[in-house]
Design a protein that fits this description.
alpha+beta, Nuclear Transport Factor 2, Chain: A, six-stranded mixed β-sheet, 3 helices, signal
Length: about 160
């Protein structure tokens, strides 16, 4: 009985250290995922298909702000075909939460996408709130498995 009490006491004393170690892994994952998000946005603008092929999971579900869904190949083809065009993507807010010992991340944020100008030449902007789920594949690294966005109302002057 005394040994069990000692073991439980040691376990109780070790819990803060274990929690700290896990939070360190989660913090490192959150930092890596934030960098990847910014790299992905840049790759979408530059049409860097090598990066996009790597960061999007083969089972990607990409839901546009208009509700249309694409898988990975459909989404990349929409960029190639000019259906999804990005002149610039500005990150306004970005929040990353890592889970499962740094193997899963949920991202939410706000971006402004500058699209090609409207036919009358006026600027064409899309203000979006979005959610992304990324997983860390042991062989491929961090990959986006889910993207969901929603258009935000235009700010009134």
């Amino acid at each position: 009985m005394k040994q069990l009490h000692l073991l439980l006491t040691l376990l109780w004393l070790a819990l803060p250290a274990l929690a700290f170690a896990q939070s360190k892994k989660d913090q490192a994952a959150a930092t890596a995922v934030e960098a990847l998000e910014r790299q992905r946005f840049e790759a979408q603008v530059k049409k860097d298909y090598a990066v996009l092929e790597r960061v999007f999971s083969d089972d990607l579900v990409y839901t546009h702000s208009n509700g249309k869904q694409n898988n990975k190949q459909e989404y990349l083809q929409s960029i190639r075909d000019g259906k999804s065009q990005y002149d610039k993507i500005d990150v306004e807010a970005l929040n990353v939460r890592a889970y499962h010992d740094g193997r899963t991340a949920v991202v939410n944020g706000t971006i402004t996408i500058t699209l090609p100008p409207k036919p009358d030449g006026t600027p064409n902007l899309a203000h979006l709130k979005y959610v992304v789920v990324q997983i860390k594949d042991p062989k491929k690294g961090w990959q986006v498995v889910l993207w969901q966005s929603q258009k935000q109302p235009e700010a009134k002057s």
